[in-house]
Amino acid sequence: MLDRNKMHEQQKAREYLKKDHMDEDTRDYHRNSRAELIGKVEKLLTALGKDGRQCVLYKLCKASQSSTQQGTFLEELLRIIFTLPKGTQFTKDEHQEYDKAHTSTENCDKFYPGCNHYT
């Protein structure tokens, strides 16, 4: 049987995966790519009749406050998608709001109530 905790500990030991090994351009590339993906998720949720903005901001908030405990496959996938690497501040206002949500220490349920937490 696979020991997921042991596997993740081994992954953390890989030097090339650590943020210290990424230059500023690489970090900014990953931040901008993630912001574009999150924007597309926001549009998708809006098209499905949800408050896409509130849902995305809620998930960014929750991802930054998630525990270090291993989640299910879907929980881990959502955590990865909604985790923004630290880096140069975004220039677009909507992306700056992503950073604000991702660094929030507020109660996500209270701060972003418009999502109804479907995602």
Descriptive key words:
119 residues; mainly alpha; DM4_12
How would you sum up this structure, described in words?
The protein has 119 residues and is mostly helical. The protein has one domain. The chain is 58% helix and 0% strand. The chain is built from six helices and no strands. It has helices at residues 4-12, 24-47, 52-64, 73-81, 93-102, 108-111. Helix 2 (24-47) packs across helix 3 (52-64) and helix 3 (52-64) packs across helix 5 (93-102). The longest helix is centred in the first third of the chain and has 24 residues, at 24-47. Residues 1-26 are annotated as: Disordered. InterPro entries: DM4_12 (IPR006631).
- In N-to-C order, the SSE pattern is HHHHHH
User: Please, how many domains?
Assistant: 1
Number of strands: 0
| Low-pLDDT sequence parts | none
Please give the count of helices: 6
Helix coverage percent: 55-70%
Pfam families: DM4_12 (PF07841)
InterPro entries: DM4_12 (IPR006631)
Region (Disordered): 1-26
How does the SSE layout of this entry go?
Layout: H1 4-12, H2 24-47, H3 52-64, H4 73-81, H5 93-102, H6 108-111
Briefly summarize what is shown.
By secondary structure, the protein is mainly α. Helix content is 58%, strand content 0%. The protein has one domain.
